[in-house]
Design brief:
heterotrimer, A mainly alpha (183), B alpha/beta (312), C mainly alpha (411), B: 6-stranded mixed β-sheet, 5-stranded mixed β-sheet, C: 411 residues, 20 helices, binds sodium ion, TRAP_DctQ (chain A), TRAP transporter small permease protein (chain A)
Chain lengths: 183, 312, 411
């Protein structure tokens, strides 16, 4: 990174250090799920076409497990390394310290929103898990493993947003560029 | 009292018009306007696979379930979709209702989920629909046949076809381009998806499983209603489910006749052909039962309840 | 508030706050608990990460850029040749995919760097790419037509065929727009000479891998090897194999492509999840029913009613997710139009056209969000770049409204 290292306080550093490995790990699993979805779906179609032997478990596996995981798990890592789009042009016309305060409040509210998504979907997951729900496809699938990715992904994102509330002012608006790859 | 009725079906779908709308009208009229409805079709509030959670999380007091999509929560009702059990929607509706009224395993499953089975709507038995006359199990060999869910996929494979799953939105293109060769559906769904444009040959008297919908009501909510309102709601459900089933059967017949009139091939299987298919489908029921039994569910009990109610 | 919060959250939070005024907290929390899983566990969504991944694999090998450059070479005597090439690429892409977000994201990866190199203004480049992406829902196959067909029980086959002429007309409109815009504001694009120079410099690139991939994807789709969803995965796998075989991809490129795809996908999906929270709010208010019901009973002439409904769609498109608009309103508006004597196939094409406009109209223009984030261009200037194309959209919409034969000729 070329730009000058911003001043970051201790709370931020501590939270950041704890979160990073978790976020990276989740993103790596998400990446593996995406590549698995690509590979299995390709083989499913090609085997069906050539030798009439589709991978009939693929449809359910991809829809209920891989898709949910590949989107949810990288959320926090994606926010840290890429930022999320927002409408920033009006920020240039208000005083900088007011703008920064607004940004911090915005991140805090977003963090609470994600925490709610995580908490409520986590409750659903727990309900499904403790009832041992099974989806009957060509084979039996445990439903809770389809749900688990949502609370994990949203939970991590919520914590990352909370962490950036304490981040340096420079980090609030700069469009991050990718600092590292998850693999 | 205002009741939220949530359904995953589009508002102009026949089950919305003849089911949800008729139900609301009947109940409001029967209670002299004491019970009114706030209606959410199209999965706006509760999707086709979420009746149980929709009711128990308070999103709706009445929700519509597509039984094969919700077998995670109500696995025993999934027995309705097995092949070879029924010959018409009326037969299936009467049998299902009778089985539930016995308060055995099938009813207990719903009670435990806090669901009152308000209105039942099994579809007509599914037919094989393709571009050639698939009237013999041997003609299914190696054909790619679109099927949904567990029992239909097992059925296709056991007859020698290759079961292929895909979302409803992609069947049309898949049949048009030959990604799949055939599908198992009822005539009503066939025209709902415009599939008669890309298919040309249909059986009329087979029983390759079916699908079913259930209008479930929040049981605790129902029990807290005044007795006269409970009675009206129950009676409305039972009378509407019968008229809807009769309508489904006559509609199936009408569509098949229309297709024949347009020069498409509509055929009956001979008793010998039906027997050959039945022979191949025995394993479907056995494997479905085994899977439920292995999870400790009273599957055999439930199936014999249903079969007894059907008089089989 | 809108200023400070990323769009993915802003929509969701706005939906949450509005819902809170209408329903008990328990109902709102039930929605929060299910909305994300319900949105993501949908096999059709696989096209979004897969087509983006395909574009990422192709662009890190430089393969897609080569194709654009080849198109550009053919159009090198034309001002704006590269931008027009992007529209053509969008139309080709549209024949393979039914999802505009996926198409826009992959076009952005493929053509934005080349357009920057050639000297286009970023806003104009993003505008061109976004608008090229929207072609995916008008040119068959299209997820939107299928949804419309199922909801209104109209023929999906006829809808697909009906979309062909409007789709090509739309693409032509975009090309004319590029030509006129660059004539009026030459600064937005490179000089013809510059563009020719870029085209010449790039002569060394090979085009065959991209042609081969287009062949695999379109061939696979039209010969029935795979469904539209599956073909996206095959396209991504094919792009990976081609990039490795042409020795243009190393380990870092691969990881860059994978992480880039994940980042964009999770962001797009978060926006879609959030817009579904807003969708619940709109459902619960019954506002669309009320509005359309009121118009139906107002006693105005059929043409006036139709134009008002089109206007409502354009306004809804500004604020709502397009799939949601379709699902919520088609069941009401289509019978209304048919009752007034309009053709349901034609009306379907008109609805999809307004949907297409909604995808790029501010403030909620999903396709522009996607292109702007893939290219890391400021959202404000991205929407600015759309303006000339929006004018073209309205002209095309006017033509389709005035001459139903354009839509119904082939059906
Ligand atoms: Na398309
Ligand atoms: Na919009």
């Amino acid at each position: 990174m070329e730009r000058k290292a911003p001043r970051r306080n201790a709370t931020f550093k501590l939270l950041d250090q704890i979160l990073r490995p978790l976020e990276n790990g989740a993103a790596i699993i998400g990446a593996a799920m995406m590549l698995a979805a690509m590979t299995i779906t390709t083989f499913d179609a090609l085997l069906r076409y050539t030798i009439n032997k589709p991978l009939s478990f693929n449809y359910f596996l991809t829809e209920q497990y891989l898709l949910v995981g590949l989107v949810s798990l990288p959320l926090a890592w994606g926010f840290r390394t890429g930022g999320f789009i927002r409408i920033t042009f009006l920020l240039h016309v208000i005083p900088q310290n007011v703008g920064n305060l607004l940004l911090r409040v915005g991140l805090l509210v977003s963090s609470i929103f994600c925490a709610d998504l995580a908490w409520m979907s986590g409750k659903n997951w727990y309900e499904i898990f403790s009832n041992g729900l099974v989806e009957m496809d060509v084979i039996d699938w445990p439903v809770h493993l389809s749900w688990i990715w949502v609370p994990i992904g949203c939970g991590l994102l919520s914590l990352r947003l909370l962490t950036s509330v304490f981040g340096a002012s420079e980090d609030l608006i700069v469009e991050h560029t990718a600092e590292e790859y998850p693999e | 009292e205002t009741i939220v009725l949530a359904s995953g079906l589009p508002p102009k779908h026949f089950q919305s018009v003849q089911g949800s709308e008729a139900l609301m009208e009947c109940v409001t009229k029967g209670t002299n306007g004491e019970v009114t409805f706030n209606y959410f079709p199209s999965g706006e509030l509760v999707k086709r696979d979420s009746m149980v959670t929709g009711i128990n999380q308070g999103l709706a007091q009445i929700a519509v379930s597509s039984v094969p999509d919700e077998v995670a929560y109500i696995p025993l009702q999934g027995l309705l979709t097995l092949p070879g059990l029924t010959g018409s929607a009326v037969e299936a509706t009467v049998g299902w209702r009778k089985a539930l009224d016995q308060n055995g395993a099938m009813a207990e499953e719903l009670t435990r989920q806090n669901v009152m089975p308000l209105l039942l709507s099994p579809l007509a038995p599914y037919q094989i629909m393709a571009n050639e006359k698939l009237d013999d199990p041997s003609k299914w060999d190696g054909l790619k046949i679109r099927a949904t869910g567990s029992s239909l996929s097992v059925l296709v494979n056991s007859i020698g076809g290759v079961a292929v799953q895909m979302p409803a939105t992609e069947i049309y293109v898949a049949l048009q381009r030959g990604t799949v060769d055939a599908t198992i559906l009822s005539f009503t769904s066939l025209v709902g998806y415009s599939l008669q444009e890309v298919l040309s040959s249909y059986s009329t008297n087979a029983s390759f499983g079916t699908s079913a919908s259930m209008w479930g009501m929040d049981l605790k909510f129902f029990n807290n209603l005044p007795a006269d309102q409970q009675r009206v709601i129950k009676e409305c459900g039972r009378s509407i489910e019968l008229s809807m089933a009769a309508l489904i059967d006559s509609n199936e017949k009408k569509i098949a006749e229309d297709l024949a009139a347009q020069g498409q091939q509509v055929f009956e299987l001979t008793p010998e052909q039906l027997d050959m298919f039945a022979e191949q489908m025995v394993s479907v029921e056995t494997s479905f039962l085994k899977r439920l039994n292995d999870r400790g569910l009273p599957a055999e009990e439930a199936l014999s309840e249903y079969k007894a109610a059907l008089g089989k | 508030m809108v200023l400070a919060v990323p769009i993915g959250f802003a929509l969701g939070i706005a939906g949450f706050v509005s819902l809170n005024m209408l329903v008990p907290m328990s109902v709102l929390q039930a929605i929060m608990g299910k909305v994300m899983h319900e949105t993501l566990a949908n096999s059709v969504l696989l096209t979004i990460p897969m087509f983006i991944l395909m574009a990422e694999f192709l662009s890190c090998g430089g393969v897609a850029t080569d194709l654009l450059m080849a198109c550009n070479r053919m159009l090198r005597r034309v001002r704006g040749g590269l931008a027009m090439a992007c529209i053509v690429a969008g139309a080709i892409h549209a024949a393979a995919t039914g999802s505009s977000t996926a198409s826009a994201a992959s076009l952005a990866r493929a053509s934005f760097p080349a357009m920057m190199k050639a000297g286009y203004a970023p806003s104009f480049a993003v505008g061109t790419i976004s608008i090229a992406g929207t072609l995916a829902i008008m040119i068959p196959p299209s997820v939107s037509f299928v949804i419309y067909g199922i909801i209104t029980e109209t023929s999906i086959g006829k809808l697909f065929i009906a979309g062909i002429i409007p789709g090509l007309l739309t693409a032509l409109g975009y090309i004319v727009t590029i030509s006129i815009t660059l004539k009026l504001k030459p600064k937005l694009g490179p000089d013809a000479i510059d563009e020719q120079r870029v085209a010449t410099e790039q002569r060394g690139g090979t085009v065959w891998p991209m042609i081969l991939l287009i062949f695999i994807v379109l061939g696979g789709l039209y010969s029935g090897v795979a469904t539209p969803t599956e073909i996206s995965a095959i396209g991504a796998a094919g792009a990976l194999v081609l990039s490795i075989m042409s020795r243009r991809m190393d380990r870092n490129d691969f990881m860059g492509a994978v992480s880039g795809t994940l980042r964009i996908t999770s962001m797009i999906m978060l926006i879609i999840v959030s817009s579904h929270v807003v969708g619940y709010f709109i459902s619960i208010t019954h506002i669309t029913n009320t509005l359309l019901g009121w118009i139906a009973e107002s006693g105005m002439t059929p043409t006036v009613v139709m134009l008002i409904v089109v206007l409502i769609y354009l306004i809804l498109g500004m604020f709502m997710d397009q799939a949601a608009v379709l699902i919520l309103t088609a069941p009401i508006s289509t019978p209304l139009m048919v009752g007034l004597g309009f053709d349901p196939i034609w009306w379907g094409v008109i609805m999809i056209k307004t949907t297409e406009i909604g995808l790029v109209s501010p403030p909620l223009g999903l396709v522009v969000f996607v292109t702007s984030s893939v290219t890391r261009t400021n959202l404000y200037s991205s929407f600015k770049g759309i303006i000339p194309f929006l004018i073209a959209e309205f002209v095309t919409l006017g033509l389709l409204l005035a001459f139903p034969i354009l839509t119904l000729w082939l059906t």
